[in-house]
Every structure is written in C-alpha cells, then in structure tokens.
Amino acid sequence: MSTFLQELVAKGLLIPTGVDGVYGRSGVFEDALLGFDSYISRLAENDKAQVMRFPPLVTRENFEKSGYLKSFPHLAGPVFSFNRPPAEHAALLERVQNGEPWADMLAMTDTVLTPAACYPVYPTVAREPLAKGGRLIDVFSYCFRHEPSIDPARMQMFRMREFIRIGSPAECEEWRDQWIERAGHWLQDLGLPAESAIANDPFFGRGGKMLALNQRAQHLKFELVVPIATVEEPTAIMSFNYHQEHFGKTFGINQSDGEVAHTACVGFGMERVTLALFKFHGLDPDKWPAGVRERIFV
Ligand code: AMP
Ligand code: ZN
User: Fold this and answer.
1) Please, what is the average pLDDT of the chain?
2) Nearest ligand to the C-alpha of residue 152?
3) Is the pLDDT reported for residue 230 higher than 90?
4) pTM of the prediction?
5) Which of 59, 73, 147, 171 pairs as cysteine with 167 (C-beta 3.0–4.6 A)?
6) 162 C-alpha to center of ligand 2: Å?
7) Ligand 1 center to residue 82 CA distance, Å?
C-alpha cells in the first residue's frame, strides 16, 4: 500500500526536490491553498485586521532578540553567504567539487528565514505607541523550520496565514479563545472534523521539557487537529497562541496606559489544511463535495 505522500507525488500535487520536506506544488494544489486563503479573508473581513505582507525573512537582529535560539535552535534557518576575498573563491569551488565541507568559508548575513509568519510584526508595531484597544494584524508568509520528515504534513517550508492581537491581557486571551470555536466551525464547514487540544511547542533540550509542561499547564497554546498522515497521531492544522508579555517585553511594545502589551496569534497551517482537504475529499478537487467546492473555488 502506498503512503499518502507517495499518492500526492504520483498525482503531481507535490513535486519532490530530493530533500525531505521540501516540495514544489502543482497548480491544482495552489488553487486549493489560495482558495482556502480567500475563504479566510472573506470570513474575517469584518474584523478589519490591518494587512501586512513581509518576505519570508526576519532581520538577524530581531531574530536574536526574539529568544528563538533559546527555545528552538534546532529549527532555525539563518542565511549564510560567501564574503571572502576573490583569491579564496577557487578554494570554495574546489571544496565543493571534492565533496568537502565548505560551511566554514561562509559568513552569516543580516537575515534569517522566518520561523513563524508573526515574527516580523512585533518589532514593527513596537515603533509607535499602541492606541486604546490595541491592534489586529493579518500576515501571510512562507515559514522555514529545519525539521526534515517524510510526513507530507511536516514540511521544511510551508505557509502560515496568521492574525495577531496586541493589547491588554484580557483583550488577547478572550480574542484567542473565541477564535478556537470560530475556526472550528469554518473547518467543519469544509468537512474537516477538527478537534481542539491543549498543546505545546517543541522546546529544545532538557530545559525545554519544563517549558512545554508550563505552557500546557497555563493553557497558552491550543491546536485544532485532524488525522492526515495517521489516525493515531492527528496533525495540528491550526494553532492558537497566547504569548502573555513575551513579545511586548522583548520588543518594547506598550499599551496606551504604559503597561507592557500582551500578544496572541492565531495561525492557519496552509499546506496542512490543503492536505487535509485532499485527505478527506480525495485527490481530485473536481470531485469534492459541492459545499466544499463552493467555499474554496469561488
Ligand atoms: P506553530 O507556530 O508551530 O503553532 O505553527 C503554526 C501552524 O503552522 C501549525 O498549526 C501548523 O498547522 C503549521 N505548521 C507547523 N509546522 C509545520 C510544518 N513543519 N509543516 C507544515 N505546517 C506546519
Ligand atoms: Zn504567531
């Protein structure tokens, strides 16, 4: 029996590159993914979130400041480039030619691949004081995580559509909580029986275990999960995070009364939702149930 990944590749929906978790997407896959993106835009229209679109990079300065390396050094994707004198160029090519390591001939640049679509937002909103009532931002970006896997739902580069709430603790937590139910209905209407679950991030190392337990105990992260690759281990297709004052403190975001701002974000895993649609309704969108088709392909 072939795996779901093999079926997706055979159908041409995902195009292998030779590296686990890095794929091209077919036109049919993109139509479904972007159709889901418009579905979100239509349903969230009245929220009047401020749209921001960033390239899939964050500045190294903001990345270092964010604390990402404390929690997830294993997933990071800093960008490196060759900036040595021309005299050393031949040595670089020779090493590559001979199959020898060449990483030490590179130097870090000022950019890091974006680990989550919301990362460029926090330093940006920190530039001006928050008005009363806080802010609501809408972002969409490819994200990178170094977690090679043969599970098609665990990619190294994938897209996230996110909404980010910045304001008081109550504004953030209530906003995050109502989103769990709201998004659950949206997915149900697409025939995806997503269930909510308390979750934690994959914090690194032994200290990370404590952070994960603490995150769960405080209900800081929820996910909506559906079975994609296996029934035993359902996949998170959406996340609902309450960061408390982490980003507010880190980047200097203050509420209108001068208190440190809290933040929360709600993220749609765009490839995962798309894969779930193919898993539940079949690999041919022409044959999807009418109710799903009319919501995705408007
Ligand atoms: P997170 O920031 O880890 O909560 O991720 C936000 C959302 O992105 C998750 O709910 C997933 O739907 C999606 N996601 C996370 N990691 C991956 C991955 N490796 N491949 C595809 N989608 C992912
Ligand atoms: Zn986020």
Assistant:
1) 97
2) 1
3) no
4) 0.97
5) 171
6) 6
7) 31
